[in-house]
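User: Hi! I'm a student and our assignment asks us to look at how structure tokens line up with a sequence. Could you show me two examples?

Assistant: Happy to help. In each example below, the sequence comes first and the structure tokens follow. Example one:
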Amino acid sequence: MGEKLSPLGEDFSFIVDAAARIQGVKGLRIQAKAGMVFTLDRSNPWILGPQAFGFSRRVLTLFPTKVLENNFHHHKKSVDMKKDKINDRVAVVILAAGLGTRMKSDRAKVLHEVNGIPMIRYVVETANALGAGEIIIVIGHQAERVQATVADHPRLKFAHQAQQLGTGHAVMCALPKISDQIESVVVLCGDVPLLKPATVTHLVADHFIDGRDVTVLAVEVQDPTGYGRIVMGSDEEVSGIVEEADVNETEKEICIVNAGIYCINRVFLQAALEKLRTNNSQGELYLTDIVGIAHDQARPVGVVLGNDPVEVAGVNNQSDLETVQAALQERSRKIS
């Protein structure tokens, strides 16, 4: 039946609280009962499976990213990324076409530097560390400069997005570059330089273990303003992601937000992209809409919830850039 509950502590309380909020439950209390399956062992990496909360297993996986750097084999099932050749079956698409007008600069956003290194290089190194079979960068503004910035990574492919018509359109541009043998596509953002390889590895492992069509990385934030909200349906499944500009009054209160990082079955992705429409406040093709499409088709969708919003913070303006730079310096100080 699994391991018995270990002594509860602050970490457990935080996770329970986060799980309650994503379900829209207030004052949730969980007591130890026979048959609950999860491990809480502070000496090892640990996972709290959604079955511990009585939720559908494919809805939510909860983990502390800072612990996951050490190891993954304590996950709910054993997975060996290299032995099982999962990496070879994955392509990474990095979205790097935008100009970033809020940066108030004539330089493409992903070329802005964090600690003297262009942001895009941090993301490419994370993708390389994953050992993905293919890495495709979607370029647009200042395409040649972006390409030259990562030219020392010989395995890269490039897809050109001539017009920036949304994240869904960007991934559409990348699809022709993805080989038929690829099973799943990881989507990363070129303006998220703090993302750790361990987090992406866990996302991919969780996706394959549960056999999902879509797995979304999400975080809990105190102020969700500006973020897409993770929305649960009446069936207690992830039903969609609603962008800030389109949320209603109820959805505004949701504090579990989309990190903009996904693992998606390639065949489903190709079909879902054809169904995207621009009937939203921005008039764009949102990649986030594929979650709703999957839910409507009763396909398996899940959310992996990290505990470090700073790690997945995107850089949209100079203030964000300063925040990310300070966080990276702090991370480097702790390592040294």
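Example two works the same way, sequence first and then tokens:
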Amino acid sequence: MITKQLTKISYLCLIICTFLVSTSSISYGDSGFPSLPLYQTELPAIENLDGYSGKLAYSNDGLIHTLDLETGEHIRYRGVPGMGGPTWSADGQFIYFESLRLYRINLVDDQIDVLTQFDGFEVPHGPFVLDPSQQWLIYHSLAVGISPYWRLNLATVEEERFNLLASGKFDYGVVKWSGDGQTILLKKDGHLYVIAASCVETQDCEVQQVTSGNNDILNASISHDEQKVVYIRSWFDQRFTSDIYTININGTNEQQLTNTLSPIGEGDAEFSPNGEFIVYRQRNSDVNRSSNLFIMRADGSEVTQITTDGGTEPDWWMDPADLE
């Protein structure tokens, strides 16, 4: 009982502290959103990254980091407590993230844009989905009851609740939008499903199940060409463990890429935008069970450790011109 009360008190303190810190320095800039100061620190460059292109954004100890995979440039960003779930915009000018509210790091104006407000009930839950036009930011909230989906119009700064599926009774968590914008990958009851992206507007959806089996599916990512899905399959056999799998989007040819003994395990797997690599985190075997980032080829070969000082929730950006 005492533990539960302390947990509730800690959560309340987190909400209050986040609110006070996040509102004390708010101003309004050219973006149309309230803004906060952005602080950045250039860290020692990471070497031996030959063969990769683009940039990674990831979280570490409540802060957002970026890593240029071509130059090794490593930058840490801070501005609000508990920054997590970084997601690049298609043009690489913004990094969206959550910390009770939704925010974005505005790399053009060197500020943090405050995208949504927090009323104590609708807690945003990433990862966030940007539609191909970059006009709508779609996210899943932790609300219970009516549709848990919201979308934010980044042009008009208007937020609205909506049903992702026509019936409104499916509580799917948005996972990823495919690179070409045609398909949305969803998760429900531990399994993965896909729907056509047009469902968001037409509400006429056919849901196709991708994975099966008894193990729980954690995070997932769909390849840019919509042919493959990479995901984390977890299970409990005396101790919790998790590994990386790929599968064709039609549910065939499931492949296990890692086979890591507990307590070490993988998570946060995501395809590179060109589909050649997979970036992921691997939990260390040390006492604090921290994680570092790794990259391997899409077939599971040529594994390279990227970070040594921690890292989770990686998101990979490449210049759209390099994907044509």
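Here is something you could point out in your write-up. The helical segments are 2-24, 199-202.
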